[in-house]
Amino acid sequence: MSIYQNIEVENNQGLFWLTLNRPDVRNALDATMLQEIDQAVTEAEEDENVKVIIFRGAGGKSFAAGADIKQLKEREPLEALVPGMQGLYKKIEDCSKATIAVVEGYALGGGCELALACDIRVATDNAKLGLPELNLGIIPGAGGTQRLSRIVGKGHALDMILTGKIVKGDDAYRMGLVQYYVTQEELDEQIDSITEKIVQKGPVAIKLAKHAIHHGYDLSGEAAMWIEKLSQAVVFGTEDKQEGTSAFLEKRKPDFKNR
Ligand code: COA
Asked: What is the pTM of this model?
């Protein structure tokens, strides 16, 4: 496993924990951290034992307080055209593993956008989420304008982005911005409960269900239904489908093999 400077990773029993680790600056995402996240996601993607990638922030006060503003200040127009943070978050959304963002404390700007790119978001009672980029004279540029409106609807997205308001965990849950809302004490149990369910599933089915949802979402209904149908045709040909259906009929737990 690689050694990292601004993140920590732990790969254990199908779970790949990726901890953003600059707590003194509320886990602000600098260039090194982004490059390391990219490398770690590749590492997780290439390990067929990994089923879930869990993103979290060190220190309990912040998931991530956004792009590193010191570095942001120096950026030139053409630097916004490279894949950068937007490209990295697309890679995370497209990766074949299930992804979970654990939002304890602040998830602002690029931190919130990272959470939006994950499949499932869990917020604690000290969570505060927002896209306050307009306060800095810029706009959300790592998928935030698009993913936020798709997740919570245009009205909430426009309200949050134009006012820069920070939404607390319980309000985020009510808006559908996060899927789980728990106290900090309940967090570990909640993560265990979600990941336990996912790791029991077959990896091919996880991958194709994710792709059918993410890639079908912006297509016409007809094209999206075809993506679903073709994905189902692929899983119908797998040993895992035989195993899953046999296990049910034989009243035992399936042992999926990723083929
Ligand atoms: N980039 C660089 N440094 C950051 C940062 C960021 N996005 N967010 C926080 N920091 C630094 C602060 O400058 C401060 O550094 P210092 O100790 O050298 O002064 C340190 O982290 C702690 O931040 P502080 O503001 O004192 O903590 P807080 O708990 O009172 O407030 C936040 C936390 C997250 C609300 C506040 O730091 C903040 O608003 N950060 C910027 C959020 C933002 O605009 N993100 C979008 C970026 S595009």
From this structure: 0.96
